[in-house]
Amino acid sequence: MRRRSTLRFRIPVLLVLFVALVVPTAAIPAPAATPTYAPQVLETVLESPILLTSAEEVLLSQGKPATASSDEPTFLPSNGNDSDGDTSWRSNFEQNWPQWWQVDLEAVTTLTRVYIDAWDYAPECSSLFDYTVEISEDTLNWTTVATDIDANGGDYTLDAPARYLRVTFTRGYNSCNPEDLINYATVREIEVYGSGASLSLSITDAQDNTVSELTNANAQDSTGNPMTTNDDGWYAQNPLKMKVIATNLGSQTLQARLEIDVGAESNPTARFYMLASEDCTHGYNGAEFSWTFYHEACSFPLEPGESSTRFLDVMVQPAEAGVIDFVARLYDTDRIVGDYFALLDSDSESIQFPQAAIHPVVFLHGILGSMPPQDKLLETNDDVRAVLDPFLGSYWPLIDQLQKMGYELNRTLFPLAYD
To answer: N or C: which end of the chain has fewer CB within 10 A?
Structure first.
């Protein structure tokens, strides 16, 4: 009996790398490439800073630009903040009340105290004045922070941001003879105290528009199908740009330490990814490409009047509705308060975001794209690097980028190896 032989052939099928979903780049800006420096898990590299309730104060007004409503020769406005007890400012004798003296601190900072030392009328008598203390950030809008009558000066506690401080005098007389009115204002010294530095934090989108909350882009794929599992969509403002400006307002070099926190430890549903650079210490909580909390600390010198600006890009990933906090704190490492550096200033922003979710993506490699050839669902990044083109790693950047945008391995991102 003659047997019929059968030959079986394994026919290779050429597959081009594809994903089941085409991501529209216009709606979802892709994050930049993986940084050369990778932050480590927060608990293993950093300790949480001790948060101080108030900033340490320093004298801010000494030598700063001073102006006045009027003055007398040798009794110039600059005498009012020269830290010299033998000089004084005096308004013009021929001018009527009110008379004012003003100092420009050259940057907005939190003011903590103002001390006014009026010039004595005579050794045995005092010059008593009625006056008002005001502060402003722009010289257009003023806020009254102190008012006094029959005063020879005083020490007044403040807690407000300002760049300018103005003292307006409305009446004066001799304490030895209240009927002896003085037709001029005069002070030996006006000292303005504050944190010694200013810190500002802002959050904008790619077009530099200020962002207070995120909205959804209602993104669609190339066929017009929605890219979300609900009606919300991707966050239209991504990536967010965080800008932090630190300024030294003091007269000495500041050994500054800038600490930045992103995320809300009380709201772990917030997910995001950021780029890290080598000039700061970093740490995070969460997965490799999806963080719930981020902390960095940078140390650098700031000369008097100098500012340092730091930019950070933040890719907020689809998640349950919640809030993401941005906090910056500036410390002086030359001074210790309690168990930590002296806090100079801080600023923060909170961004609300709505719920968003994304369609799962199935990732198939090309021919001979896995080594050794095998049928396997790659559930971790270690699996991806061990199996998908382990020699050249040609697929790794795309898998990483998808995770930075918010896809999660074995949940919404499924790389498949096959034989």
So the answer is: N
pLDDT beyond 90 at 163: yes
Q: Indicate whether 6 belongs to any domain.
A: no
33 belongs to a structural domain? no
**Is 228 found in the same domain as 116?**
no
- Cα within 13 Å of Cα(45), Cβ side: 15
Chosen domain end from 169, 194, 219: 194
Strands (E), 23-80: 40-41, 58-59, 66-68
> What three-state secondary structure class fits 370?
strand
Closest CA to 395 of 410, 408, 383: 383
Give the DSSP H or E segment for 399.
helix 396-405
What's this model's pTM, rounded to 2 decimal places? 0.69
- Based on the fold, state whether residues 277 and 394 are members of the same structural domain: no
* Token pair for 326: 């941005």
Range of the domain at 293: 40-49+199-353
Number of residues that this document lists for the chain: 419
Pairing of strands 290-302, 376-377: unpaired
CATH code, domain with 253: 2.60.40.10
Structure tokens at 367: 């021919």
Question: Rounded to an integer, what distance in angstroms lies between the CA atom of residue 357 and that of residue 37?
Answer: 29
- Among 159, 194, 229, the domain boundary falls at 194
- pLDDT class of 387 with cuts at 50, 70, 90: very high
| C-alpha span between 142 and 151 (Å, rounded) | 22
Choose among 223, 249, 309, 209: nearest CA to 22: 223
**In this structure, what token pair is assigned to residue 236?**
């239209």
Whether residue 296 is contained in a domain is answered as yes
Report the candidate in 354, 410, 359, 405 with the shortest Cα–Cα distance to residue 382: 410
137-152 residue pLDDT tens: 999 999 999 999 999 9
Q: Does 2 fall in a domain?
A: no
SS3 255: strand
Sign of torsion, CA 127 136 326 399?
A: negative
- The answer to whether 32 touches 380, Cβ cutoff 8 Å, is no
Separation CA 49–CA 330 (nearest Å)? 12
Residue range 171-215, pLDDT digits in tens = 999 888 888 888 899 999 999 998 778 889 999 988 888 988 887
Asked if 240 and 343 sit in the same domain, the reply is yes
